[in-house]
Amino acid sequence: MTGFFTLLYKELLRFWKVGFQTLMAPMVSTLLYLLIFHHVLEAHVEVYPEVAYTAFLIPGLVMMAVIQNAFANASSSMIQSKISGNIVFILLSPLTYREIFFAYILASVARGLLVGIGVYLVTLIFFDTPLQSPLWSLTFVILGSAILGALGLIAGIWADKFDQLAAFQNFIILPLTFLSGVFYTIHSLPTGWQYLSHLNPFFYMIDGFRYGFFGVSDISPYASFTIVAICWLAISCFTIGMLRSGYKLRH
Questions:
Q1: Of 40, 78, 101, 128, which is least packed with CB atoms within 10 Å of its CB?
Q2: Single pTM value for the model
């Protein structure tokens, strides 16, 4: 397991050495979102009974920061290794494709968790939003960051240059994130848009994570967990298949 832990350490060190960019910047941007939406919409938007809009918004913003940074961690690392050519040192090592996969995923989960914890602690300075079911929130934040880490690997393997990676993020990850209920409850949408929201796996990550804060959600947390877990297994199998085949890595 020495090779696995070495690769994991390299991936952890990679984002930790530039922590001001990878950890601090998401906290600042999320706090700006929160303060602006609190000032503009707090008195005009109703969500759950006895839940203020700002309190409702906090878990959505935390989860948004988590999944965006988990995706960025794996995708940027993979494409930088491909472009610089040092991916060959990983491929020539005796590491199995499963070890490569889990090293990248665990590093993405670690960055997602650190960003999520940091964002949540910063919001506590201004707003009191206690966790009612921390285990539910932890479960969804780990699964969500693992899924986005796997998607980041897919994007990094598929893309040949940074603008292709940016297209993947801007046309797939960003719309799915913003249309997942971060800023609103789907019950406020027309019926057709509610059906479309239920096709978005990001919705179940955020809705389940929000359940850990308030004990209420748009759908059952057990249903959300089942869907998110199935998505994790499917995306992981696809990503491992890409690594095993050497798609755009060995050929």
A1: 128
A2: 0.92
